[in-house]
């Protein structure tokens, strides 16, 4: 298992969050924590999530799968940022 | 224009070019059926919504356009689940329109309420639930665009009944022009370099080549390079079977030379394909010596199952055109072709006649292919007959073989043929079906008879769930638990059933009658025809890579492992 921290911008459309959560469960991604908050732009929300991947699955693959969800504006891998924060 | 949500729905469907809807009315979707009554859009009233969904898939694959199906809320909508899953797996562009209970009662377990959006989340590319009738034209246009662009797939539009009934003003949807990914010139150059320096390259062609309409580009590129081509189950027809560069289908039931080409290659040029386990066999043992160029419109497919050395995100047509433009010379592939040509000569597709004197199913399909020809459209169910349809029909053009690859949905053949025939009325459409599969969806033959959709069905009646029986023979010591159907004992009598459904029913159980029966079926134009081909129950699909083994263990026939044996 590897641990990753992702930050997504979602369109505020009904079902957008559900689609992300279902993607995690159907692709066997473990969710450790998840938080949703309004983004600066009113029509977007920011989803911060920490996930654990099964052996053999890559974060790049997950990011691409998230990227094809129509209501996802962007996905950023923050795993590294967090490591720095923790280390500080 | 003043109208209602329902009126806007039908007008919008007309404006985006929808010509046929497969569906069934019911309470929640009823408002939509009223303006549909006056529309130029044809509605085909199915007997089961699953049939509507698969018909939309068949229509889409025969025409290259978006297929549309429609159902009411609750059970109508849930009956679409299987076709949506199927379309998702095989990247088929369909739009499913479902009625929903009124906005005020959503979430109250109202009569015929099912949260179809949530149910279908993992099996739709996208979905909408419309709450303002003014949004309907935009949503329909978006649904069509999403279904048909990028990696195609199913899109669901859920419409609460009161939204359909509410007055609104129709504003024609703006039809966006689809954009295609811009190719990376660096990756194209890297790919061309790999191709130029490889000694044992192979084009590993998937269904994406058919979806992108790239068969011509493939033809050009293959002839320019002289590189062997294999076409997966979803790509049969993307490259002519008669072409000398074509080695046939790879995978679990692929030809020995096609499997060998992948296993012994030093370069896979994978186009619009997703390294499905039915092609790769045991992944760590797949194509062990090959570098990989992988081009796909969906970035998430690249390096998903097998790491690509060069990944190209793009439409297959653009990718092949770009490669053709930069590749200038043919590399010398003599040794490679000598090896593959040897395998092709030693291990052609072949079959034995059943010991009990019954018909060989492969022979029936071979003759069907010969007599109906490459201009016909063939659909298949799932099982042995599907694999024989992939192996023994000779395909020469894209869109001529329509089957359920990723999901493997039994019952696909008849409704898919209905949809294909509705979209291509001038072509002969043959559903090659199993006696098990046929019993899942044959009710749509009543639809075909009533609607004047004269499909032809060849039931490969082996009396059994043949594919499962084959596995029981090979892996369960011949313990035939629950695979006998009783269809050889006429439970049911397919000829009588055909007759009852308003079709012509024929039966054939001997070699000498096969051609005559097929020709008799082909002479019928005013009604659907069902032919009950009674064949032996012990015929098996070969070659075979047993599930869970590596492709090197491909067996040309039981116990014969050409690649395994050549190692030492
Ligand atoms: C809906 C569904 N249920 C079960 C299966 C599992 N299955 C795969 S092939 C097969 C047998 C199909 O029998 P038949 O239609 O007679 O085809 P045959 O293999 O005999 O040619 C079964 C049960 C499936 N693929 N789809
Ligand atoms: Mg059977």
TrEMBL record, chain A:
InterPro entries for this protein: Acetalactate_synth_ssu, ACT-like_dom_sf, ACT_dom, AHAS_small-like_ACT
Reactions performed catalytically: 2 pyruvate + H(+) = (2S)-2-acetolactate + CO2
UniProt keywords, alphabetically: Amino-acid biosynthesis, Branched-chain amino acid biosynthesis, Transferase
GO biological process, one term: isoleucine biosynthetic process
Gene3D superfamilies on file: 3.30.70.260
EC number(s) reported in the record: 2.2.1.6
Keyword Transferase applies: yes
Organism domain of life: Bacteria
Residue stretches spanning the membrane: none
GO cellular component, one term: cytosol
Keyword set includes Amino-acid biosynthesis: yes
Domain ACT: 5-80
GO terms for MF: acetolactate synthase activity; acetolactate synthase regulator activity
Function: Catalyzes the conversion of 2 pyruvate molecules into acetolactate in the first common step of the biosynthetic pathway of the branched-amino acids such as leucine, isoleucine, and valine.
Oligomeric form and interacting partners: Dimer of large and small chains.
Family the UniProt entry places it in: Belongs to the acetolactate synthase small subunit family.
Protein name per the record: Acetolactate synthase small subunit
Protein species of origin: Lentzea waywayandensis
From TrEMBL, chain B:
Domain Thiamine pyrophosphate enzyme TPP-binding: 381-533
UniProtKB keywords: Amino-acid biosynthesis, Branched-chain amino acid biosynthesis, FAD, Flavoprotein, Magnesium, Metal-binding, Thiamine pyrophosphate, Transferase
GO MF annotation list: acetolactate synthase activity; flavin adenine dinucleotide binding; magnesium ion binding; thiamine pyrophosphate binding
CC cofactor: Mg(2+); thiamine diphosphate
Residues annotated as signal peptide: none
Cofactor binding description: Binds 1 Mg(2+) ion per subunit. Binds 1 thiamine pyrophosphate per subunit.
Pathway stated in the Swiss-Prot or TrEMBL entry: Amino-acid biosynthesis; L-valine biosynthesis; L-valine from pyruvate: step 1/4; Amino-acid biosynthesis; L-isoleucine biosynthesis; L-isoleucine from 2-oxobutanoate: step 1/4
Catalytic activity, reaction form: 2 pyruvate + H(+) = (2S)-2-acetolactate + CO2
Cellular component GO terms, alphabetical: acetolactate synthase complex
Domain Thiamine pyrophosphate enzyme N-terminal TPP-binding residue range list: 4-116
Enzyme class: transferase
Cited Pfam families: TPP_enzyme_C, TPP_enzyme_M, TPP_enzyme_N
GO biological process, one term: L-valine biosynthetic process
UniProt EC number: 2.2.1.6
InterPro entries for the chain: Acetolactate_synth_lsu, AHAS_TPP, DHS-like_NAD/FAD-binding_dom, THDP-binding, Thiamin_PyroP_enz_cen_dom, Thiamin_PyroP_enz_TPP-bd_dom, TPP-bd_CS, TPP_enz
Domain Thiamine pyrophosphate enzyme central: 188-323
Family label: Belongs to the TPP enzyme family.
Protein name per the record: Acetolactate synthase
């Amino acid at each position: 298992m590897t641990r990753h921290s992702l930050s997504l911008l979602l369109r505020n459309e009904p079902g957008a969050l559900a689609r992300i959560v279902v993607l995690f469960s159907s692709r066997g991604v473990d969710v450790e924590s998840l938080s949703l908050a309004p983004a600066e732009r009113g029509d977007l929300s920011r989803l911060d999530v920490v996930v654990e991947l099964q052996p053999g699955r890559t974060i790049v693959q997950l990011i691409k799968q998230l990227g094809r969800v129509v209501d996802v504006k962007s996905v950023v891998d923050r795993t590294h940022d967090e490591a720095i924060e923790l280390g500080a | 224009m003043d109208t209602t949500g329902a009126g806007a729905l039908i007008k919008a469907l007309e404006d985006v070019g929808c010509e046929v809807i497969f569906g069934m009315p019911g309470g929640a979707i009823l408002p939509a059926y009223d303006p549909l009554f006056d529309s130029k859009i044809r509605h085909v009233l199915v007997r089961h919504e699953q049939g509507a969904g698969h018909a939309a898939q068949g229509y889409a694959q025969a025409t290259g356009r978006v297929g549309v199906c429609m159902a009411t809320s609750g059970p109508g909508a849930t009956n679409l689940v299987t076709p949506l899953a199927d379309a998702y797996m095989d990247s088929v562009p369909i739009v499913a329109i479902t009625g929903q209970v009124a906005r005020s009662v959503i979430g109250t377990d109202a009569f015929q309420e099912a949260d179809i959006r949530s149910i279908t989340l993992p099996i739709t590319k996208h979905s909408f639930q419309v709450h303002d009738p003014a949004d309907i034209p935009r949503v329909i246009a978006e649904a069509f665009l999403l279904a048909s662009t990028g990696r195609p797939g199913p899109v669901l539009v859920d419409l609460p009944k009161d939204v359909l009934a509410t007055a609104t003003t129709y504003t024609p949807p703006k039809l966006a022009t689809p954009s295609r990914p811009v190719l990376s010139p660096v990756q194209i150059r890297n790919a061309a370099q790999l191709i130029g320096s490889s000694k044992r390259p192979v084009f590993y062609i998937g269904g994406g080549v058919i979806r992108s309409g790239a068969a011509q580009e493939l033809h050009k590129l293959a002839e320019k390079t002289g590189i062997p081509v294999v076409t997966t189950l979803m790509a049969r027809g993307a490259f002519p079977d008669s072409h000398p560069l074509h080695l046939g289908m790879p995978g679990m039931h692929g030809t020995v030379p096609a499997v060998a080409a992948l296993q012994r290659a030093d370069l896979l040029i994978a186009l619009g394909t997703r390294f499905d386990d039915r092609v790769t066999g045991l992944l760590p043992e797949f194509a062990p010596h090959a570098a990989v160029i992988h081009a796909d419109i969906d970035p998430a497919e690249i390096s998903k199952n097998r790491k690509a050395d060069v990944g190209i995100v793009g439409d297959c047509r653009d990718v092949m055109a770009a490669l053709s433009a930069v590749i200038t010379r043919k590399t010398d592939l003599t040794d490679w072709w000598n090896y593959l040509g040897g395998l092709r000569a030693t291990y052609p597709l072949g079959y034995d006649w059943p010991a009990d004197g019954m018909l060989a199913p492969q022979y029936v399909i071979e003759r069907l292919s010969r007599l109906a020809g490459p201009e016909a459209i063939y659909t298949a169910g799932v099982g042995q007959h599907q694999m024989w349809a992939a192996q023994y029909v000779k395909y020469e053009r894209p869109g001529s073989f329509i089957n359920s690859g990723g999901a493997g949905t039994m019952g696909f053949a008849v409704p898919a043929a209905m949809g294909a025939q509705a979209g291509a009325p001038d072509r002969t459409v043959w559903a090659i079906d199993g006696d098990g599969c046929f019993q899942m969806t044959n009710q749509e033959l009543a639809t075909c008879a009533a609607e004047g959709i004269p499909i032809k069905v060849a039931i490969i009646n082996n009396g059994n769930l043949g594919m499962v029986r084959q596995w029981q023979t090979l892996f369960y010591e011949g313990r035939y638990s629950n695979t006998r159907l009783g269809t050889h004992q006429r439970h049911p009598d397919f000829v009588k059933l055909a007759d009852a459904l308003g079709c012509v029913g024929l039966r054939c159980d001997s070699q000498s009658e096969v051609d005559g029966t097929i020709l008799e079926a082909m002479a019928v134009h005013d009604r659907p025809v069902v032919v009950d081909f009674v064949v032996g129950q012990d015929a098996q699909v070969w070659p075979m890579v047993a599930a869970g083994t590596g492709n090197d263990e491909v067996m040309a026939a039981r116990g014969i492992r050409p690649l395994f044996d050549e190692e030492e």
